[in-house]
Design goal:
Structural class: mainly alpha
Oligomer: single chain
Mean pLDDT: 75
Number of helices: 8
Distance between the termini: 99 Å
Order of helices and strands: HHHHHHHH
CATH superfamily of the domain at 2-72: lambda repressor-like DNA-binding domains
Length: 176
């Protein structure tokens, strides 16, 4: 069904296979397979085909018999409308812009989170230290080993003095 509808819409628009293939960025041989053997294009190519043919993906795939059902070329849609249609299809018309904005914010959050995780993993693979925030430490964050040893010695000395002061301040239970 896809092959037939694709050819029907192409001929209706008066386009050659070569011209339509060029417009959607595929080779003529690949396009020929779409019409002749029913080979299915990628989702991205399918959307481009529907756009160039001023129809819907649903029509090309046989999900509807109306080639113009609510059809507006994709290039005329706002980014929010594209997201709405891409995620929710026909039911997307009822989804408000506030929900689409929330989805975009969440997608940006997840992309940022993935970027941070990727940096952490890369830094760990390379054996580099991480900041408390989880980000890779920069050269400015590095502490001289001699200073680190001196700090550790000072910490131990403070712990010893603290323990001695605590034991001196507590009453001796043995003598009671």
């Amino acid at each position: 069904m896809f092959s037939e509808r694709l050819k029907q819409q192409r001929m209706k628009k008066g386009l050659s296979q070569s011209e339509l293939a060029r417009r959607v960025g595929v080779g003529r041989d690949s396009y020929n397979k779409y019409e002749r053997s029913g080979t299915n294009p990628s989702h991205e190519t399918l959307v481009l085909l529907a756009t160039e043919l001023d129809t819907t993906v649903d029509f090309l795939l046989g999900k509807t018999d109306d080639p113009n059902r609510n059809a507006r070329p994709m290039r005329e849609l706002s980014p929010n409308e594209m997201i709405r249609i891409g995620l929710f299809g026909d039911v997307g018309a009822e989804i408000g812009d506030n929900v689409i904005e929330d989805i975009k914010e969440y997608a940006a959050f997840k992309a940022d989170q993935e970027k941070r995780n990727s940096r952490q993993t890369k830094a760990q693979r390379m054996g580099k230290p991480l900041r408390a925030s989880g980000a890779p430490a920069s050269p400015e964050d590095a502490v001289d080993p001699a200073i680190e040893a001196e700090l550790e010695s000072y910490r131990r000395e403070l712990e010893t003095k603290k323990a001695a002061a605590t034991s001196a301040a507590s009453p001796d239970v043995k003598g009671a």
